[in-house]
Amino acid sequence: MGSPLLTCRAALLGMAILAGAPAGAEQPPRSPAAQDARAAVAALERQRAAAFQRRDIAALRSLMDRQYYHVESRGRARSKTELLTALEHDGLRVRNYEIESSEIQLLGDGGTALVTGTFRTLMEGPPPKPFRGRFARLWVRQPDGWKNTFHQATEIRPAQDSCECN
Protein backbone atom coordinates (compact mmCIF):
# COMPACT_ATOMS: atom_id res chain seq x y z
CA MET A 1 0.00 0.00 0.00
CA GLY A 2 1.27 3.48 -0.83
CA SER A 3 1.84 6.32 1.54
CA PRO A 4 -1.39 7.51 3.23
CA LEU A 5 -0.50 11.09 2.33
CA LEU A 6 -0.12 10.15 -1.34
CA THR A 7 -3.40 8.24 -1.20
CA CYS A 8 -5.13 11.31 0.28
CA ARG A 9 -3.61 13.60 -2.33
CA ALA A 10 -4.64 11.21 -5.10
CA ALA A 11 -8.22 11.10 -3.77
CA LEU A 12 -8.43 14.88 -3.56
CA LEU A 13 -6.86 15.28 -7.01
CA GLY A 14 -9.35 12.78 -8.37
CA MET A 15 -12.21 14.76 -6.82
CA ALA A 16 -10.91 17.96 -8.37
CA ILE A 17 -10.57 16.35 -11.79
CA LEU A 18 -14.03 14.81 -11.61
CA ALA A 19 -15.60 18.02 -10.37
CA GLY A 20 -14.09 19.81 -13.35
CA ALA A 21 -15.30 17.23 -15.90
CA PRO A 22 -17.08 18.67 -18.93
CA ALA A 23 -20.79 19.28 -18.39
CA GLY A 24 -21.63 16.75 -21.11
CA ALA A 25 -19.99 13.99 -19.06
CA GLU A 26 -22.21 14.57 -16.05
CA GLN A 27 -25.55 12.94 -15.41
CA PRO A 28 -28.44 15.38 -15.24
CA PRO A 29 -29.08 15.94 -11.50
CA ARG A 30 -32.66 14.66 -11.71
CA SER A 31 -32.12 11.80 -14.17
CA PRO A 32 -33.31 8.36 -13.04
CA ALA A 33 -29.69 7.12 -13.02
CA ALA A 34 -28.57 10.02 -10.81
CA GLN A 35 -31.54 9.54 -8.47
CA ASP A 36 -30.77 5.82 -8.21
CA ALA A 37 -27.10 6.51 -7.49
CA ARG A 38 -27.94 9.06 -4.78
CA ALA A 39 -30.47 6.65 -3.21
CA ALA A 40 -27.89 3.84 -3.21
CA VAL A 41 -25.24 6.04 -1.56
CA ALA A 42 -27.77 7.38 0.98
CA ALA A 43 -28.64 3.78 1.96
CA LEU A 44 -24.94 2.95 2.30
CA GLU A 45 -24.42 6.04 4.47
CA ARG A 46 -27.19 4.81 6.81
CA GLN A 47 -25.59 1.34 6.90
CA ARG A 48 -22.20 2.89 7.66
CA ALA A 49 -23.59 5.00 10.53
CA ALA A 50 -25.38 2.01 12.08
CA ALA A 51 -22.32 -0.23 11.68
CA PHE A 52 -20.06 2.45 13.20
CA GLN A 53 -22.32 2.81 16.23
CA ARG A 54 -22.56 -1.00 16.69
CA ARG A 55 -18.84 -1.41 16.00
CA ASP A 56 -19.74 -3.94 13.32
CA ILE A 57 -16.27 -4.52 11.87
CA ALA A 58 -17.44 -6.96 9.18
CA ALA A 59 -20.08 -4.53 7.88
CA LEU A 60 -17.65 -1.60 7.86
CA ARG A 61 -14.98 -3.71 6.14
CA SER A 62 -17.42 -4.54 3.33
CA LEU A 63 -18.38 -0.86 2.87
CA MET A 64 -14.79 0.40 2.68
CA ASP A 65 -12.41 0.29 -0.25
CA ARG A 66 -9.13 -1.50 0.47
CA GLN A 67 -7.32 1.85 0.01
CA TYR A 68 -9.69 3.64 2.45
CA TYR A 69 -8.20 6.72 4.12
CA HIS A 70 -9.70 8.21 7.32
CA VAL A 71 -8.81 11.64 8.73
CA GLU A 72 -10.14 12.34 12.22
CA SER A 73 -11.28 15.72 13.50
CA ARG A 74 -7.92 16.44 15.15
CA GLY A 75 -5.94 15.49 12.05
CA ARG A 76 -4.96 11.92 12.83
CA ALA A 77 -4.96 9.81 9.67
CA ARG A 78 -5.69 6.09 9.65
CA SER A 79 -5.82 3.39 7.02
CA LYS A 80 -8.74 0.98 6.78
CA THR A 81 -6.87 -1.59 8.87
CA GLU A 82 -5.86 0.97 11.51
CA LEU A 83 -9.40 2.31 11.87
CA LEU A 84 -11.02 -1.13 12.10
CA THR A 85 -8.40 -2.29 14.61
CA ALA A 86 -9.00 0.81 16.76
CA LEU A 87 -12.76 0.20 16.71
CA GLU A 88 -12.33 -3.48 17.50
CA HIS A 89 -10.02 -2.80 20.48
CA ASP A 90 -12.00 0.18 21.79
CA GLY A 91 -9.34 2.66 20.68
CA LEU A 92 -12.08 4.99 19.45
CA ARG A 93 -14.30 5.91 22.33
CA VAL A 94 -17.28 7.04 20.30
CA ARG A 95 -20.89 6.26 21.18
CA ASN A 96 -24.32 7.24 19.84
CA TYR A 97 -23.07 8.17 16.36
CA GLU A 98 -25.87 10.05 14.57
CA ILE A 99 -25.95 11.83 11.20
CA GLU A 100 -27.80 15.14 11.54
CA SER A 101 -27.74 16.19 7.90
CA SER A 102 -26.15 15.12 4.65
CA GLU A 103 -26.00 16.09 1.01
CA ILE A 104 -24.92 13.85 -1.84
CA GLN A 105 -23.26 15.33 -4.91
CA LEU A 106 -22.47 13.11 -7.88
CA LEU A 107 -19.23 13.98 -9.63
CA GLY A 108 -18.07 13.40 -13.18
CA ASP A 109 -20.02 10.65 -14.91
CA GLY A 110 -21.91 9.74 -11.71
CA GLY A 111 -19.50 7.00 -10.60
CA THR A 112 -18.17 9.09 -7.71
CA ALA A 113 -20.24 10.61 -4.91
CA LEU A 114 -19.17 13.29 -2.45
CA VAL A 115 -21.24 13.18 0.74
CA THR A 116 -21.02 16.15 3.11
CA GLY A 117 -22.93 16.83 6.28
CA THR A 118 -22.97 17.09 10.05
CA PHE A 119 -22.99 14.47 12.78
CA ARG A 120 -23.11 14.24 16.54
CA THR A 121 -21.79 11.67 18.93
CA LEU A 122 -20.85 11.15 22.54
CA MET A 123 -17.18 10.66 23.35
CA GLU A 124 -16.73 8.27 26.25
CA GLY A 125 -14.67 9.31 29.21
CA PRO A 126 -14.93 10.78 32.61
CA PRO A 127 -17.16 12.68 31.98
CA PRO A 128 -18.72 11.78 28.60
CA LYS A 129 -18.35 14.67 26.15
CA PRO A 130 -20.84 15.58 23.43
CA PHE A 131 -19.15 16.07 20.07
CA ARG A 132 -20.55 17.66 16.91
CA GLY A 133 -18.74 17.74 13.59
CA ARG A 134 -18.83 18.15 9.84
CA PHE A 135 -17.81 15.33 7.55
CA ALA A 136 -16.87 14.72 3.94
CA ARG A 137 -16.85 11.21 2.50
CA LEU A 138 -16.02 10.01 -0.97
CA TRP A 139 -17.76 6.95 -2.44
CA VAL A 140 -16.68 5.35 -5.72
CA ARG A 141 -18.77 2.91 -7.76
CA GLN A 142 -16.75 -0.25 -8.38
CA PRO A 143 -17.61 -3.53 -10.12
CA ASP A 144 -18.75 -4.98 -6.76
CA GLY A 145 -20.74 -1.87 -5.76
CA TRP A 146 -20.16 1.49 -4.10
CA LYS A 147 -17.15 1.67 -1.75
CA ASN A 148 -16.25 4.37 0.76
CA THR A 149 -12.71 5.48 -0.11
CA PHE A 150 -12.17 8.62 1.99
CA HIS A 151 -13.51 10.23 5.18
CA GLN A 152 -12.61 13.47 6.91
CA ALA A 153 -14.23 15.02 9.98
CA THR A 154 -13.88 18.48 11.49
CA GLU A 155 -15.17 19.47 14.92
CA ILE A 156 -17.81 22.19 15.11
CA ARG A 157 -16.99 24.26 18.13
CA PRO A 158 -19.38 26.74 19.72
CA ALA A 159 -18.70 30.35 18.78
CA GLN A 160 -16.49 32.19 21.25
CA ASP A 161 -17.55 35.50 22.77
CA SER A 162 -14.14 37.02 22.30
CA CYS A 163 -11.24 36.41 20.00
CA GLU A 164 -7.56 37.02 20.63
CA CYS A 165 -6.98 37.07 16.87
CA ASN A 166 -5.20 40.42 16.67
TrEMBL record:
Residue ranges crossing the lipid bilayer per the database entry: none
Record keywords, A-Z: Signal
Residues annotated as domain DUF4440: 41-147
InterPro entries attached to this UniProt entry: DUF4440 (IPR027843), NTF2-like_dom_sf (IPR032710)
Signal peptide (UniProt feature, chain positions): 1-25
Database matches in Gene3D superfamilies: 3.10.450.50
Keyword Transmembrane helix: no
Protein name per its UniProtKB record: Nuclear transport factor 2 family protein
Native species: Massilia hydrophila
